[in-house]
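C-alpha cells as discussed.
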C-alpha cells in the first residue's frame, strides 16, 4: 500500500486546481438548482429542457427579459425574435412556443412586487452561475497546462483521445491518483479510489461483495463522469454496460462501477504500453491482441 508520497510542485498544483474546478462545479449545480426553483415560481409553464435553458437561446431570454413571462408577453412575436437573434440563433418555432408558455404563466396572477422579487432572485442565481462557470473555465485552462507540463517529464502519460477521454478529464484523474510510478499495479489504483471489491463475511454469514469506498471519493466521481458518455450504445463501453444491465440484469449503478474499474485498467495499460490508444485492446488480453495482430 502507498503510505507516504511527496508529490512535486506540478503534481501538487494539479491537485489544488482540481479542487478549485470541483468547487466551481458544485457551486454551478447549486446555482442551477436555484434557477430551476425560481423558474418554477416565476415562469411555471416554461417547458424547454435544460439544454435549451442553459444554451445560447435560454441565456438570450434571460439577458433580454430576465425569464419573466410578463415582460415576454409584452413583445410582438417579430420584435421578440429580433431581440433574441442579436445574441442567439433561436428558431421561429421556439419563439412561438416561448410566447405560448409565457401567456399560460401570466394567467397565474401574482402581485407585481412578488414578481419583481422572483426576477431579482433569478438574476442573482444566474450571476452566481456565470461567476462559477468562469472560475471552472480558468481552472480547466490551468489543469490542461499543468498536465502538458507533467507529460514533458513523463511522456507515457496518456494524451486526450477524441470520443474516449479529454485532456481535462485526464488532468483531473491524475490530479487525484498521482503518478502511476507510485503504484505496483492497477489494483492499487482501485484501492486508492475505494473501488476494490470487499466480500461481506462474518462467521458463517456470506453477504454481497461490494466496493470498499475506502479511499479518495473524488477519484470515483471523476471516473463516473468519464464513464457516463462512454456507456451509450454506440460508444466504447456501450456493449459492455448494456450487456451488464440487459442480459445480466445488473443495476445501473453497479454496472457503472464495473465500467469505472475497467477504465482504470484501460488507462493503466495505455500508460504502460507506451503506445497510441487502440480501442481493439480494451476488451482483449495481451495474447489475444498479439494473435489478432
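Sequence:
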Amino acid at each position: 500500500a502507498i503510505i507516504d508520497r511527496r508529490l512535486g510542485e506540478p503534481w501538487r498544483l494539479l491537485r489544488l486546481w482540481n479542487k478549485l474546478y470541483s468547487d466551481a462545479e458544485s457551486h454551478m449545480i447549486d446555482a442551477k438548482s436555484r434557477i430551476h426553483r425560481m423558474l418554477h415560481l416565476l415562469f411555471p409553464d416554461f417547458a424547454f429542457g435544460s439544454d435549451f435553458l442553459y444554451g445560447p437561446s435560454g441565456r438570450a431570454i434571460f439577458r433580454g427579459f430576465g425569464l419573466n413571462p410578463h415582460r415576454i408577453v409584452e413583445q410582438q412575436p417579430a420584435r421578440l425574435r429580433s431581440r433574441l437573434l442579436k445574441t442567439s440563433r433561436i428558431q421561429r418555432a421556439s419563439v412561438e412556443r416561448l410566447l405560448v408558455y409565457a401567456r399560460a404563466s401570466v394567467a397565474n396572477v401574482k402581485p407585481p412586487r412578488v414578481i419583481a422579487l422572483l426576477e431579482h432572485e433569478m438574476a442573482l442565481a444566474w450571476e452566481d452561475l456565470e461567476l462559477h462557470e468562469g472560475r471552472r473555465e480558468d481552472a480547466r485552462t490551468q489543469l490542461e497546462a499543468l498536465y502538458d507540463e507533467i507529460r514533458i517529464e513523463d511522456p507515457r502519460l496518456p494524451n486526450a483521445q477524441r470520443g474516449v477521454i479529454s485532456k481535462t478529464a485526464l488532468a483531473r484523474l491524475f490530479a487525484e491518483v498521482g503518478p502511476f510510478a507510485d503504484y505496483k499495479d492497477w489494483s492499487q489504483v482501485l484501492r486508492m479510489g475505494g473501488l476494490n471489491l470487499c466480500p461481506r463475511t462474518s462467521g458463517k454469514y456470506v453477504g454481497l461483495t461490494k466496493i470498499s469506498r475506502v479511499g479518495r471519493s473524488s477519484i470515483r466521481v471523476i471516473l463516473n463522469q468519464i464513464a457516463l458518455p462512454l456507456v451509450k450504445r454506440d460508444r466504447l463501453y456501450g456493449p459492455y454496460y448494456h450487456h451488464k444491465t440487459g442480459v445480466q440484469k445488473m443495476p445501473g449503478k453497479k454496472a457503472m462501477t464495473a465500467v469505472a474499474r475497467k477504465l482504470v485498467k484501460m488507462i493503466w495499460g495505455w500508460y504502460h504500453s507506451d503506445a497510441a490508444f487502440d480501442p481493439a485492446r480494451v476488451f482483449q488480453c495481451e495474447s489475444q491482441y498479439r494473435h489478432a495482430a
